[in-house]
Amino acid sequence: MARTKQLINREVSWLHFNERVLQEAMDVSNPLIERLKFLGIFSNNRDEFFRVRVATVKRMIQVEKSKGDKLKYNPKKVLKEILDIVEEQEKKFTNTFFLLREEMGRNNIVFVDEESLDEEQGINIQKYFNSKVRPYLFPIMLKNLNRPNTLRDGSIFLLVELKDSTGKLSDDYSIIMVPTDHLPRFVPLRDKDGKQYIIMLDDVMRYSMSEIFSPFGFDTFKSYTIKLTRDAELDMDEDISKSFVEIMSDSIKKRKKGDPVRFVYDKEIPEMLLQRLIQKLNISEIDNLRGGGKYHNFRDFMSFPKMGSKKLINPKTPALSHKSLPQHISILSVVRNQDILLHYPYQSFQYIVDLLREAAIDPQVRAIKMTFYRAARDSNVINALINAARNGKNVTVFLEIQARFDEEANIYWAERLSEEGVKIIKTLPGFKVHAKLLLIRRKENGENIYYTNISTGNFNESTAKVYADDSLLTANQSIAREVNTLFHLFEQPYNPPRFKHLLVAPYYMRDTYIRLLNAEIKNKREGKEAWVKIKLNSLVDEKIIRKLYQVSRAGVKIDIICRGICRLIPQVKGLSENITVISVVDKYLEHSRIFIFANGGNPKYFTGSADWMVRNFDHRFEVITPIYDEQLQQETMDLFSLQWSDNVKSRLVNVEPFNQYRKSNSKKQIRSQVEIYEYLKGKHG
Description:
Blueprint: H1 10-26, H2 32-67, H3 75-106, E1 109-112, H4 119-133, E2 140-141, E3 156-163, E4 172-177, E5 186-192, E6 195-200, H5 201-207, H6 209-213, E7 220-230, H7 244-255, E8 260-266, H8 271-280, E9 288-292, H9 331-337, E10 340-344, H10 350-361, E11 365-372, H11 380-390, E12 394-399, H12 407-419, E13 423-425, E14 432-433, E15 436-444, E16 447-455, E17 467-474, H13 477-491, E18 503-505, H14 509-525, E19 531-536, H15 542-553, E20 557-562, E21 579-584, E22 589-590, E23 594-597, E24 604-608, H16 614-618, E25 620-626, H17 630-644, E26 650-652, H18 672-684
């Protein structure tokens, strides 16, 4: 395994995380359709991994070849290990898919393909093809494919072999994109004999090839699925005559035609045809070529339709209310008197929309400021900001244009907001604003009073239904005024002030954590209470990891819940034996960050948007806020403890064998996401 004695390679660690997602598809205790969706999540994750991380490793190999640079690790060795792990995971994935198809059949949901349709189904598919599918099909003849970047990243294509049974025409070949951008990948057919039937869009096309090509004299067709994954890192030009938005827009267009990093295909393609295609697409030996089955792009299973009985999907869990925020009450008036901590998706994100709606029409509210990293497609949050601007409020938005894979949407929203009179703070080349901040300025008794919301997750009502995040609402003026200072800093980032309460990157965040960890070492030596509890998504930063090892060697117990990448190796004698790392993967994506330090018996609590990664500490504007309210501190500790006690969905991280489920002495099964829901229901119900 790619590791030093003290660190695991981050790419390998990420693959371990994605295997935990695959485990959820394999877990028979999960409802059947939810297991299919986990296959889709796994596949989507892996595509992005190849677009970004594998593409980076391959560039490292090219740099090493051209310049002979000595890198910190051997990129060729890492790439080989990546591909070996991916191959093993692919075997598990394929086996799981076929098992799930069999299980669906036992639940009267039947997949059919172009060869198993009966006469009635065939007639209906033909009608569907001509009315819905055909308008989106634009075949390219293989002999005319002269530009290697013609095939779009991430889409699936059918490579069609065209034959004439009479022998009058020479064989020909065509490529057609499967139009999943416009049509669902899964097409339900009419129920029959108590069974529900479903066919994939690619098979609809296979069945109907004669509709496209028979006018040209062909009557025999064979179709093979192919898919290219391309390098997704943006290649930014330095044309100073262009605005940053123009540069980003151009770069996004280039991304769709980036260099190939992976090519997957139906292994039934004749070898001669495959080689011809590889040559046409300019695919090199370093690109990962993988022959597979008939179907690719399993990410579409994330949107698999609801079918069959209710037991095949997760039961609905209605969003809980917060006892301090009943309907028809001013949220601002409540927050003026007490801090509020919301927990999505257990509690409703609608509170934030309602808060913005209230601020938009409150005559005493003068200004609203907000950061956006990823906005929802039909964002009620942005609509509320537009309404506030129309109501005469001074609305300022920092909308991060550089949010990977959301650049196009964010450019659209930036232009839309600007048209409505919202002030857009320009993006900061070289830095991303990842902090999740909302600030409301209200005139009260002639004085400016600030209300702020600091969240671990995006202001996105769609992801708030599936991402488990924490969101602090406070009118603590010490915190809120520092948030206001930070917004000024976004506009003039050249003279950073000192922050007394907030931990702010890229300035003092890492140093502050190191001071807090050093204090735990000191307290342990002095016989005081000393421990650390951390929950985050990624633990990568080497300076922090080495400090955690030092804290462990001092005898301080460290509990870490890390969902994704973790380079730290726990439970190594003499190095990290006091560190335990677990990961929880369940129906909600664990996304919150919590940091608790014993501090000699007077614990310090923090939450916010930043993981412990180099990019978060050094290349992003991030905010971590203290939690000062004692009741919210206890609530935070309770929620951490519930997750730490999980013995159903938690796995040990970086302990061989990898991703083993964590065992517990408790006779009770504790599934933390269920327990958290019940805890909040009991507290606020």
